[in-house]
Amino acid sequence: MHNVMLIEDDLDMQELIKDYLQNYDFNVIGYEKPKEAIESLKNASDDISVVVLDLMLPQMDGFDVCKKIREFSEVPIIISSARGELSDKILGFDFGADDYLAKPYEPRELVLRINAILRRNIKINKTIGDFEVDEEKMEIKVDGYELDLTQIEYDLLTLFFKNRGKVLSREVLSNGVKGIEYNTKDRAIDMHISNLRYKIGDDSKEPKYIKSVWGIGYKFIG
Q1: CATH architecture type of domain 2-120
Q2: Whole-angstrom Cα distance, residue 154 to residue 195?
Q3: What does pLDDT average to in each consecutive run of 10 residues of the chain (222 residues)?
Q4: Domain 125-220 has CATH 3.90.960.10
Q5: What's this model's pTM, rounded to 2 decimal places?
Q6: Where are the domains positioned within the chain?
């Protein structure tokens, strides 16, 4: 479930939007006062998927709120405002908004805009146990240290990640990684696994990550 922060001082409008979004399985945290919302976001920015921001607010203007959020967070911001002039939209994008929805609008449109932003902002960085994977850079870190992997070792490790807890035969591993030909007499896959274990600090006798399954292959248990 995605968390949506709603900064809206019209409490009737706030309840309407909250009720509607909750019907689409969004958890909505509503704020009437922008300063409280900003402080909350500073403490939990990783937990918020989208901010829906009104412009006409007490304490400070919505554009200033948008600017302030951008000083510490890249969380997607959708401006939801009755100020629908082109100049306001330009300012909103200049201050870091990702989308601008002029009131009045059908609540369903807000759902569509949120879902579109979420699709664009799917994180390609993943955490799997002790490992951090950056798919775009093709980098893997363990305990904060980047691993110096060959292409085959990188492909093997990511194949293990995708099949965590499953026993993978040598043939399956060979077929899933380019550059390794499967041969029952050739132990090339074992050599690559041995090198990979060394680089990730694993011990074949007391495995923390890659366990040998006698007569079959290997299983990632990390």
Answers
A1: 3-Layer(aba) Sandwich (3.40)
A2: 11
A3: 91 92 92 93 82 92 92 90 87 92 90 89 72 85 90 91 87 83 73 94 92 91 83
A4: no
A5: 0.57
A6: 2-120, 125-220
